[in-house]
From TrEMBL:
<protein>
    <submittedName>
        <fullName>DUF3109 family protein</fullName>
    </submittedName>
</protein>
<comment type="similarity">
    <text>Belongs to the Rv0495c family.</text>
</comment>
<dbReference type="InterPro" id="IPR021458">
    <property type="entry name" value="Rv0495c"/>
</dbReference>
<dbReference type="Pfam" id="PF11307">
    <property type="entry name" value="DUF3109"/>
</dbReference>
Length: 199
């Protein structure tokens, strides 16, 4: 673990390799799971604001859920999460002709139709953020549906924190990310030294 200001980062974020492989997983992280994606309170208004833009992209089932309970709900752990359809799909999921799942909000953002990318928890995955009073924990979340991403990350040699540079800066700022990157460089040097001593 390393600490940068009041944020504690798991060493896995620096050392594990990861690159999303959408062709392999088909966007399964937006489908599988026992709850919706974590949502910050200030993001609820953003989700509601973008609804008219993406409404026609959503399935009739998703539209019905949103009409009934809104864009978010509180799960069994007391966390605010995106609403889901049939205890599975996030209400904001859509599918292309190849059966690949994608986020309707992100699609609209990339097409210049809205200014909200998507909930930062989705943008940050496979990193999960947890609050512990005065400290915030940044952890790497392992999930079987992301095996192909781990394989691709190892093949390309891209650690989690580098793959998630954009969302980490979005969440914590560019200055904090630079400190994280510097720590990662130092961590690598120290571990290389330890490995050399073992031979």
């Amino acid at each position: 673990m390393i600490q940068i200001e009041d944020i504690v980062v798991s060493s896995d974020v620096l050392t594990e390799k990861f690159i999303c492989n959408l062709e392999a997983c088909k966007g399964e992280c937006c489908i599988e799971g026992d709850a919706g994606a974590p949502v910050e309170k200030n993001e609820v208004a953003e989700l509601e604001k973008v609804l008219p833009v993406i409404w026609d992209e959503l399935s009739p089932e998703a539209q019905a859920v949103i009409k009934k309970q809104g864009v978010v709900y509180t799960d069994q752990d007391g966390d605010l999460v995106t609403s889901i359809v049939g205890n599975k799909n996030c209400v904001f999921t859509c599918y292309d002709e190849k059966g690949c799942c994608y986020c309707a909000i992100e699609k609209a953002y990339r097409e210049g139709k809205c200014n909200f990318y998507k909930p930062v928890s989705c943008h940050l995955y496979p990193i999960r953020i947890e609050n512990y009073g005065p400290y915030t924990a940044v952890n790497y979340h392992r999930w079987d549906v992301c095996k192909a991403a781990v394989v691709l990350g190892k093949l390309k040699g891209v650690p989690v924190y580098q793959f998630l540079k954009e969302p980490l800066i979005r969440k914590f700022g560019a200055e904090w990310y630079q400190m994280l990157s510097d720590c990662a460089d130092e961590w690598t040097k120290q571990n290389m030294g330890e490995n050399e001593e073992k031979y």
